[in-house]
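User: Please check token order:
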Amino acid sequence: MDNSDENLRQFERTARNMQSLAQYSRSNQINKEWVRYVAV
């Protein structure tokens, strides 16, 4: 974890993306929850 601020921004970006795609498939919903769990 050489650049934690950048990593956090990337996780947040991914979480927002998964949030917007979650309504389209179950796998996207699962990925969104995983990203939220890992980011916290």
About this structure: The chain is about 80% helix and 0% strand. The mean pLDDT is 76. The CA atoms of residues 26 and 32 lie 10 Å apart. Helices lie at 4-21, 26-39.
